[in-house]
Amino acid sequence: MTSAKKLDRAAYGAAAYTSLKGSLPNPFPRIMGPNAARYVQEVVESGLIVDMMGRFEKAFAQAMGVKHCIATPGCTPALHVLAAALGFDPGDEVIVSPVTDYGTIMGLVKEHLIPVFPDTAPNTVNFSAETIAPCITNRTRAILVVHKTGIICDMDPINELAAKHSLIVYEDACQSVFGRYKGRLAGTMSHAAGFSFDSEKTMGSDVGGCLITNDDELAERIRFIGQSRGAAAEPGFGRKHIAAGYAYRMPACTAAICLAQLEIAPENVAQRDQMIRLLTNLLAEIPGITPLPIPDYLDVYSCWMAGFSIDPHAFTCTTDQFAEQCAADIPAIGTGRYYLMPAALTFLQKAAAEKTYPYSMPPASRRYHYGPDTCPTAAKFLDTFIRWATFCEKYTPDHCQLAADIIRHVADKNRR
To answer: Do 346 and 358 touch, CB atoms closer than 8 A?
Structure first.
């Protein structure tokens, strides 16, 4: 057996954050809900019989104002089981934002569905009804909306477009928990939605995620596929697996921490909303710097990631050099070109080019191509976009001013 090539594997959670240095706050150690230890102790003292997952599901559904919450080990498995529960056929298409994370896409890939990436709207990280419309074909079954950085997509036009073509809409709300669009909570404006409670996220637990929906039949199928492994009990025999299911159940101790974090999430989000609006105004005063625009329809910006664009003609340095010079004081600041899924998912590029399943015909009905050239607006935007995912509820007005001062200093030092 040959030795495996050692890869520079990506780090997640606290491991990716705790060694960061700089003058601005780091999310870790996380601020924990005051009842976290008590809820975990309850799990332990009960001998694992307390239904902490059920308690969290009930509490989160009530907070969202929906009928069903199904807890999962993370948002990636949440969106995976949802893709499985929707029951589409291999080769069917799901339109999904091109600027996101692999966790959004994994479920589609594993269920042999074909992701289709529209371009983004100009000067933002999100797509729109206008960019989605040209991508709809007779194989399109759903639109998966991603509220990147916590900026909720303009949902009303997207839902209108979907209704016109009889498409399902569902939301990846991993970065937008308790954000509000025209008075409505992120995740409640579609058929279903997935959330993340991974340690670095806004409502950070150790890990965790969930799905929410008002559809009774879909909720039951999600539980059957995702928690019961597609198994039905037959008298005199036992379990029969009548569907290819998964064991995507949230652990009890994770549910305990999630329940405690839920109790402090609204105040966490309110602080983030106030601070990102202040920071946005401060950055807008710096010549050559354009903060990520906050749409007028966004009542509450549940910001997980702060960001801005630089005018390449205004500075003598590149985008990467600008970010590197900020990194001495702003933890985890850098470019985010890897968020462009058509460019980042090289295995999809290969599968589409070689027409391997499900890109073979059938089940596919046409040829596909992935690459940065398919989303030129998004690619161009990300080329001058700088962001940091260490923006958190620990920020105060003084921190916002300090961040703006750091960025202004770098801008002035490199100005043409």
So the answer is: no
- CA dist., res. 150 & res. 180, Å (int): 10
C-beta of residue 56 within 8 angstroms of C-beta of residue 255: yes
Q: Shortest CA distance to 95 belongs to which of 144, 148, 153, 46?
A: 144
Closest CA to 301 of 271, 263, 261, 346: 271
Region of 48 (left: φ > 0; alpha: ψ -120 to 50; beta: rest) is left
Q: Are 259 and 39 in contact (CB under 8 A)?
A: yes
| Statement: residue 411 has pLDDT above 60 | yes
Asked if 219 and 69 touch (Cβ cutoff 8 Å), the reply is no
Average pLDDT of the chain, as a whole number = 96
CATH class of 36-259: alpha beta
One-letter identity of residue 178: F
Give 33-67 pLDDT, tens digit per residue. 999 999 999 999 999 999 999 999 999 999 999 99
Compute the distance between CA of residue 397 and CA of residue 181 in angstroms, rounded to an integer. 25
pLDDT tens readout for residues 275-291: 999 999 999 999 999 99
Q: Give the Cα separation of 30 and 116 in Å (integer).
A: 36
Range 63-83 burial, b when 16+ CB lie within 10 A, else e: bbebebbbbbbbbbbbbbbbb
Reported confidence tier of residue 268, pLDDT bands at 50, 70, 90: very high
Q: Are 330 and 309 in contact (CB under 8 A)?
A: no
pLDDT tens, position by position, 340-399: 999 999 999 999 999 999 999 999 999 999 999 999 999 999 999 999 999 999 999 999
Structure token pair of residue 102: 């692999």
